[in-house]
Design a protein that fits this description.
Layout: E1 27-30, E2 34-38, H1 44-50, H2 54-60, H3 67-77, E3 83-90, H4 91-95, E4 105-112, E5 121-128, H5 138-153, E6 158-164, H6 168-176, E7 180-185, E8 190-196, H7 199-208, E9 213-216, H8 217-220
Parallel strand pairs: 5-6
Antiparallel strand pairs: 1-2, 1-9, 2-3, 3-4, 4-5, 6-8, 7-8
Helix pairs in contact: 5-7
């Protein structure tokens, strides 16, 4: 059961479905706490179990899907050109390859290209679905990694985050990442924060993620010692 602490980045009134630009389908970003991997069918059962939580349903204004519906959505999101998603794993649990990825899942991080006239604007969303992982730095590192990837690989120069007003932990985290509050929607009870990535902000962001290793997913999925032919 989920705790009373709202997952980072969940927006009341919306639950953008997970999607994945093909650009990241073979990309792994490994940080000290969090590792980001592409969303695949292997992750669907755990994700589906998360969304049975009444708390997550309430925070994301979602109706639970059947497992088969979740698989169908994963297949369709894979080809979506205006969304980029990674599943967040616990690096320590995952790195040894002793556990399956489903056992290492912590949450997900998404980037949505919401403005068709401005492809440099990305809306970012982070959800730490596992209660025991909240408040431990996983959300912050995963967000920084996604922002860095957005800047270096997707051409993003402006970020927005829309967060429920009651989610003070998430609002505070984004402000620590240099986001500024730019709007409050009293109807949807959400706050919009924004960061314009100047040259100075880009240097800061890349410095914050200088420890992150970028790998090829197909390579790290191979059994130890086995070479791809």
């Amino acid at each position: 059961a989920a705790s009373a602490v709202p997952p980072l980045g969940c927006v009341a009134g919306t639950r953008p479905r997970l999607g994945a630009m093909r650009i990241n389908q073979d990309t792994v970003l490994q940080g000290s706490r969090a590792t980001l991997v592409p969303y695949t069918p292997a992750h669907v059962p755990r994700y589906h179990a998360w969304m049975q939580s009444e708390e997550l349903q309430r925070l994301t204004a979602s109706e639970p899907l059947s497992l088969e519906q979740e698989y169908e959505m994963q297949r369709s999101w894979r080809d979506d050109a205006d969304k980029c998603t990674f599943i967040v794993l616990d690096t320590e649990r995952w790195a040894g390859q002793a556990r399956g990825e489903e056992d290492c899942m912590v949450g997900d991080v998404n980037l949505f290209l919401t403005d068709t006239e401005d492809p440099t604007l990305g809306e970012i969303e982070i959800m730490i679905a596992e209660p025991n992982y909240r408040g431990r730095g996983f959300g912050k590192e995963a967000t920084l990694m996604m922002m860095s990837y957005g800047v270096t690989d997707l051409g993003i120069t402006k970020f927005e985050a829309k967060i429920g007003q009651e989610n003070e932990a998430s609002i505070c985290m984004f402000k620590k990442l240099h986001f500024k509050e730019v709007a409050v929607n009293s109807v949807f009870r959400e706050v919009t924060l924004r960061l314009d990535v100047s040259d100075e902000e880009k240097r800061w962001l890349l410095d914050q993620t200088s420890h992150v290793e970028k790998k090829t997913y197909s390579e790290v999925k191979l059994p130890a010692g086995e070479l791809e032919t």
